[in-house]
Amino acid sequence: MSSEGETMDSFFDELYEKYHHDVFQFLFYLVKNRETAEDLVQEVYIRVLKSYSTFKGNSSEKTWLFSIARNVAIDWFRKQKSWKQRMIEKFEWSEQQISDDQSIPEEITVQKEEIQMIFKCLNKCTIDQRMVIIMRYFNELSISETALALNWTESKVKTTQHRALKGLKENMMEIMAEEEKNIEKV
Amino acid sequence: MKRSEWNEKQLEEMLKQLPKIEDHRDPRDIYHNILYKRKAKKHMRWILPSASTVSVFFLLFLLFNGIENGSTPNESNKGKSESNVLTMNNTTTDAMDEGHLQESYTLKDTKEITNKEERSKEIKDSGWKYLAVYENDIKSSESLTYAVPDQQSE
């Protein structure tokens, strides 16, 4: 029992050392909330430690970890969605408030205006698109690594990435246009 | 404005500029949280099946108890309905003399008495030997048919 505890202990240390910040980063930009990301990253470890004996090294440790993180996040979104829908049904008037109530963390508010805008526009991407963007640009995974982590084909990663960038660009243009209009009015 | 002419490369650059968000928690705290949650989960895994087993036994207990208790009233119900059928036969069968009919009326009246034991006693007390009429019994006598409308029938 104690030896199992020790191996788990060292395994955790190793994972934490190598990947914690990457996984946390991924989850944070996906759910856009620090507390939720903290909870989810723990859930990732729980699942990893539960199945590390079955990990056969078919894929790299990194993509394996990311694929678990992705599953944890998707489960969370599913739960969230049903919870949100229930609440919306109850208080339909508060629908707008819920979607507007996404606080922007301090790290972002001190950035340039463009960076803040791109952070907001990420909200408008689908979850799949967001995952690809985060993996590719923040975690700096290669296309093949992203494909492994998401369990997609490489071409699906490429098209999703392309669409995500296109969507981001359009969203940012829209916001720009609105801002310019507002400036003209003043 | 130049900004409206972003291309993919620029967008990619901007995405890469998004700040790194750090988890400020101590790794030991995270590890303890994980261990705690794992334990909690194990508890949950143990609680649910045992709770369902207990409830199954409880339901089985209720079911068999119900069957044992229920057997007595069921039997007496059966007896009651049999005697009912007999009286109905009496009132409607052919060839019944006036006196018998009268008696069957009084018998019918006793229907109002809800207590079955009292009822069965009354049937015994009425001195009836036969509760049904057979062909042999009425061979020698003349038979008349009376229609007795039953108010309770639908």
Rg calculated over all Cα atoms of chain A? 19 Å
Specify the CATH homologous superfamily of the largest domain in chain A: RNA polymerase sigma factor, region 2, helix turn helix motif
The number of domains of chain B is 1
Provide the structure class of chain B.
Answer: mainly alpha
Low-confidence stretches of chain B: 90-96
Assembly state: heterodimer
In the CATH hierarchy, what is the class of the largest domain in chain A? Mainly Alpha
Kindly report the average pLDDT value of chain A: 82
Shape of chain A: globular
Number of E-state strands of chain A: 0
Helix content of chain B: 55-70%
How are helices and strands ordered from N to C of chain B?
HHHH
Cα end-to-end separation of chain B: 91 Å
Folded structure, characterized:
- The complex is a heterodimer of chains A (186) and B (154).
- Chain A has helices at 2-31, 34-51, 61-90, 95-100, 106-109, 113-122, 127-138, 143-150, 154-185.
- Chain A is mainly alpha-helical.
- Chain A folds into 2 domains: 1-103, Rna Polymerase Sigma Factor, Chain: A (Orthogonal Bundle); 111-186, Arc Repressor Mutant, subunit A (Orthogonal Bundle), CATH 1.10.10.
- In chain A, helix 7 (127-138) packs across helix 9 (154-185).
- The radius of gyration of chain A is 19 Å and the shape is globular.
- The model of chain A is unreliable at 95-101 (pLDDT under 50).
- By secondary structure, chain B is mainly alpha-helical.
- Chain B has one domain (27-136).
- Chain B contains 4 helices and no strands.
- The N and C termini of chain B lie far apart (91 Å).
- Residues 90-96 of chain B have low confidence and may be disordered.
